[in-house]
Amino acid sequence: MTVYLCDDNIEGLYSAIFRAYADKNTKSRISSLSAMQSGFDTEFIRVESDPARAERVENAVLSLAGRRAADEIETAMRSAEADKADICFSYVKRTLREKRYISRDFAYLEVMPFITLVERVRTERHRFTGFLRFSDRGGVLYARFEPDNDIADLLLPHFARRLGNLPFLIHDARRGRFAAWDGKRAAVFSSEKEISEKDCGDGVAALWKSYFAAADVKERPHPRQQDGYLPRRYRKNMCEFSGK
Amino acid sequence: MIDEKRLIILTQSAKYDVSCSSSGSRRQNVPGGLGNAAFGGICHSFTSDGRCVSLLKILLSNKCAYDCQYCVNRRSNDVPRASASPEEICELVAEFYKRNYIEGLFLSSAVEISPDRTMELLLDTVIRLRKLYRFNGYIHLKGIPNADPLLIQRAGAYVDRMSFNIELPSERSLKLLAPQKSKNAIVKPMRLLSSADFKENARGRGAGKFLPAGQTTQMIVGASPETDGQILRLSQGLYDAFSLKRVYYSAYIAVNPQSRYLPAKSANLLREHRLYQADWLLRFYGFTAEEIVREDGFLDEEYDPKCAWAVRHMENFPVEVNTAPVEMLVRVPGIGIRSAYRIREARRRTRLTFDDLKKMRVVLKRAKHFITADGKFFGEENFGRMKTLLALQETNENAEQLSFLTGNEIEKSVITGEI
Known about the structure:
CATH topology of the largest domain in chain B: TIM Barrel
Oligomer: heterodimer
CATH superfamily of the largest domain in chain B: Aldolase class I
Strand order of the largest sheet of chain A: 4-5-6-7-8
Structural class of chain A: alpha/beta
Radius of gyration of chain B: 23 Å
Largest interface: A-B, 58 and 64 residues
Helix content of chain A: 40-55%
Largest sheet of chain A: 5 strands, mixed
Number of domains of chain B: 2
Distance between the termini of chain B: 44 Å
Distance between the termini of chain A: 52 Å
Shape of chain A: elongated
CATH architecture of the largest domain in chain B: Alpha-Beta Barrel
Number of domains of chain A: 2
Order of helices and strands of chain A: EHEEHHHEEHEEEHH
Shape of chain B: globular
Number of helices of chain A: 7
Number of helices of chain B: 17
Number of strands of chain A: 8
Order of helices and strands of chain B: HEEEHEHEHEHHHEHEHHHEHHHHEHH
Strand content of chain A: 15-25%
């Protein structure tokens, strides 16, 4: 079994798909470098990202299945699932074979796993539009979070529309990714820089904690429902749950 | 800024109102403004009672002139009292909103001095928020029964949603437990809010679209003797007559054990759960209240209302998934709106088998007794055994549902109301 190893992004995936087709080896698998798993008879081939080749594959997807399919593939590649690249590969192969948009053909073997990836990323993005917590750091709103999937820049437009002139910085501490807004322009960058932990800090955060505690209906405890809706792993960056 | 002590009092006085949704409005931000509304609503946190925190749910005052038996803020109750100024509320909303703690404001108040005075203060708060703070986030305003219609109309032009709480599902119970409120004082403003003339006249007075997220109401269940059938028929009437977005049901919590008119114990939560399930069936699944309830006027406890209906109407089943209309598919126990949609999409190209349904993640545990796929039936043929199986599954699911589902699935089912 051949496994093409690609960079962990959309360009990497498309470059590897190009290579698999060029080698006439579409029975192979594709894995992102970070999720590489060796097996008995596995032959690994490292594929460097190549913008020109990636673009050719993307254009093929665009012309056969449209913008919606390309967006979904881009979204799926933000997933934290180990086999996302291979799931996307299967989806693209079927798309190229059917020559149309197939995401609603739920009975196809390739579709449900792919759609599940897309939905998980979108759900997590939606959740963090609510669960992200900003603190006021001298006029800049700063939010640290640790999402499962790579979604920091997907949150940017939502908060830019909402906060208008207020500058903010969203920090994915797991990946060292930053999404920034200065009131007019947006920027996305990577940095290993750690921003000091400072709790949510001010008196407003203290009021919020009091509010949160007071809003609980103690007569009707339902912590399992709370856990279902608000996974515990997210809570360490939410000030109403921090003991500080 | 409001102090912690008053914030806690005014929050604790507001928390028994169950409405938490921030959906239904697409209000946009304006240059230099703060906030917008997300049509699907956004949950910002969850308290340990499992409820979502979306809006800053607070009273302007809990100093009430009324003495409604079921209410924690009734005049005769010995609880700490407080009030906040409109400015204090606005400031708190803006600061909370900037930090993404909340999606907006859910403002209500006890009737302090008079209904008109109270409504004026509520109106002052929302106008201040919209005009001075240029706040475009979500606002849900509780209407005060007996307040002047002009005040209610003005408020409707600034807020996203308004609600007048029915509280008790019959006039008799209202007279007994909330003597200062009358059915007319609650229903009249609801009718006004839904009338076209009222909306039209409100234009030009305020800040744009009239109540983009419509109106809702709430009923307390188990404080008075009404049956599920009476409650659901009332809800159905409200949806039809006033185009209500939602009716909330709140199992009575014994906040007044001394009252001789009220049950000493809190009401059964399963009953509230079944009413919500039945309510989804009314709104999204094409059922009527008459179809759902049993002859004695109550909902079954052992099955969800859709399953109970199907078991009573086995003459309609099994249905073939490849040909049944979507309206019939959603009536199959275990097949929700999403699964029905998936089936409809997928069967355009393929003749679906049970294997295909599994691949599509259609949950077949219950559905298999009510469907055929490509002519094949895998359910239980013995009616008695099937009923036992369904009841057992229901018990297990009630106990384990949350540990089974991923957060993702739960959220979806909340949005689509799937059963």
